[in-house]
Fold Aminopeptidase N.
Amino acid sequence: MKKIFVAALFLGTLLSPYKVWSQTENSGREGLYRATHTKTTELKHTKLKVNFDYQKEQMNGEAWITASPYFYPSDSLVLNAKAMLIHEVALDTGKAKTPLKFDYKNNILNIALNKEYERNQDYTVYIKYTARPNEVTQEGSAAINGAKGLYFINAQGKELDKPTQIWTQGETESSSVWFPTIDKSNQKMTQEIYMTVPDQYVTLSNGILKDSKKEGHAMRTDHWVMEKKHSPYLFFMGVGDYAIVRDKWRNIPVDYYIEKEYEPYAKQIYGHTPEMMEFYSKYLNYDYPWPKYAQMSARDYVSGAMENTTATLHGESVLQKPGQLADENIWESVIAHELFHHWFGDLVTAESWSNLTVNESFANYSEYLWFEHKYGKDMADYHLMKDRERYLYDPSDYDKDLVRFNYASREDVFDLVTYQKGAAILHMLRNYLGDAAFRAGLNVYLKENEYSTGEAHQIRLALEKVSGKDLNWFFNQWYFSNGHPKLSYTYNYEPVKKQVVLTIHQSQAPLFQFPLVVDVYQDGKPVRQKVWADAKTDNTFVFTSLKKKPELVNINADGVLLAEIKEDKTSDQYLLQYQNSKEFLSRYKAVEHAYRNVDKNEADLKTLLAGLKDPFFRIRMLALKGLDLSQPHQAKLALAQVLKLVTDEPKTLVRAEAIGALAKTKDKKYENLYEKGIKAVSNAVVGKSLGALMTIAPEKVISYMDQLNPDDVSADLESILAPLIVKNKILKLQSLTSNIAAFYPFINLQSPEEGKVAEEAYTWIMQTDSSAAVKRLIKILNQIKTDIGDNPRAKMLVLDMLKSGLNMKMKVLKSNPHKSNLHQQVEWINHTIDSYSK
């Protein structure tokens, strides 16, 4: 993304007795330093009137911007306005408009006011303009892969099976594509928007819909009003053909804007939202602060989801049907995340992108808080473990501070450090302070900075104020430095003194200090020890009153510390750890070790067998994956429990894994179980049952698939069926192979074996006359186009694939020149080639 920095441009400086110096990019320091944007103007209110040109994919707008100098007198207003046509600029007194001189270049609109204004002396500037998002040259990033600000989706209706939608994406600084503003997070203002749209569509924006007025020519104007201040990047507009499913939290409207096909499932997808609002309000002792909460899905969205104030926008992955929802709502954590932003991000906003942690780390950690509240600590710990693993997997992030003043692009801060590592850091901080102090500190932070901005130091000060503890040591190493502890350890038993000496070695730089929980096992039972490691290479701890050498010493036994720990435990020790630890991570790591080593040691098989009865379903799943019931010894010990899980397990994901484990026996006596499974609602159970049935009765699988309606097959089940459809050339279900066919150049790069199946699917589609398959293939390729953005190599891979497919389809057309549907397929392919060539 190109860096757009708003310098302090003052057209009237020569006429003013005051000299205002702007903060520089380095803020007087050597080297790159991302200073907080200097506020010379305070925006008070933005009023917009807009309508849309669907053919040109442009927006006609009028803006009334009420502002005043922030502190020093000023006779100019400097605004961001990207790729616009500026038609008129005037001072609006409410009674008359007086033209103002302005200069517009390099996406900066510099307006000379009619006089010099003092602090808190308000004025209103009127701007008539045209927003042209397709003219924006700013690029997106890995996290937000577009920076057009305003998006027209299938505006001319040419794309197959895709609705026409309009939506905006302001983060980081792209709201200035669709209205002139000071596009910085440390600005806060109220707003109102008049949106004129075709009457067939509904609209969504921030705040409350005050009124809706019918216009001529089947048009309608909706008036949305936001009476509480928030930042420009959180401004939002959404337009489309949605159903609105109504819900409520206390007296607050909660609405779900959803494509009509998914309307029956809206409450299954979003239905926990009111409970989340209640939980977060009580946890923070600060009630949800906004007048409504709405959630909308978007096609071709450029990120995962966005917390626009009172109007969250989700990517289309939120759209799920019963087969998937029966297994799990894959979007529940995101729904929780975006809601929590309405306190951390919307109510109190990061004053600069360097301090993004006060938005995103908290939102990521809110996922832990929700899962802990709703499903228990094991579920929350599992979720956090996956977050930590994502961060630890990528060493390229190890040298990045959490609060980062030296980023190359502000988009770079949206990464594994800010999100996943930041959440793990907050978990450590909560455990160090205690939950009550942590919650009370967050409440102080919110109340002291509400409807304003915040930074990491204000979090620290609020927590210190409540707890009485100095937290500089914690923030200096975890917020203003980088990396994490890399630990190894040894321990020795001294029989005369009856004590264990534990030495913990840190091998990384910088060194860390941290509290640590250690379980010392005597007679199979853990005795918990709490120690403090100083910031030095070796820390030694002595545990006394031990009758004999411990069977096991388990460091970081509660799983709280974010660290890489080199372990040297035996399978017997892992079995002991599993049997006697109540902590999720200790149990999971033991079963994970057994999963990898079950063929080597009897203790590992015992761990897997115990894991089959674990209270947490993810551990039961892992244990099932580790079994091989084709081995007689394993079957003898585990088969009865696996069968019980197949028939009685309430969690469908576990039941599916049990079916997968049972399938390894290749025993025909389980055929009835698998046939029952393919009638289940759960996609996971259906998929595993089909795979199992394929090993013993493939003819029944073919017969089953031949009776399927393609429209009833979910995306995840489709991925299971597609190879079978290709192999058996089931023409009726050919369209279900379009997904793997569309991705075949990319699949081939990752796995040539799977790529061969995907290429075969693509060739089959192109060498036959199947409008449904081609139509769906093109639809998926249009989605891929959005995902890959401006990646030239990815575009070339798709173009090469499309051109070879066109040649194949032309040969089919040459043999059947009078078939109109073949001509249509060729037209679709050509249109997609043109689209990718732009």
